[in-house]
Automatic annotation (TrEMBL):
Segments for region (Disordered): 38-60
Name by which UniProt lists this protein: NADH-ubiquinone oxidoreductase 21kDa subunit N-terminal domain-containing protein
Segments passing through the bilayer: none
Organism: Actinidia rufa
Family matches, as PANTHER family: NADH-UBIQUINONE OXIDOREDUCTASE 21KDA SUBUNIT N-TERMINAL DOMAIN-CONTAINING PROTEIN, OXIDOREDUCTASE 21 KDA SUBUNIT, PUTATIVE (AFU_ORTHOLOGUE AFUA_4G04750)-RELATED
Amino acid sequence: MKSSSFLRSSVLEGFFLCSPNIFDYFCSLRILERERVEDSEVEEEDETRTSQHRRKPEYPVIDRNPPFTKTVANFNTLDYLRLSTITGISVTVGYLSGVKPNIRGPSMVTGGLIGLMGGFMYAYQNSCGRLMGFFPNEGEVARYKK
């Protein structure tokens, strides 16, 4: 069976060598067919993967879709501590990475900005997770149930 398909493909390739445009066209069709099959397999995997990752909140839900202002207002001391720690480490790394090319200042500022954004996103994620019930939220429940 392998030999007949190999023979058939080699004959077709030999035939299409005379006109490379047609050969390229059929090769591109084969590639598109392969990609379509792979895409359908990936879609099936994505469906099972998303159904596995959808989980129900383990803690009381305060707000299913908290707005930006409520999420930022919900930052606690630990969130601010994490934000400042990540920013401080990034400033230090930026400074140390700029020592050799002698661009300490700009490198330090860039590292600080990257750390500030990363720290803010981390604190925002934790705060939002507590409001949506995915992280432990005893303090938030007590505060918002009043």
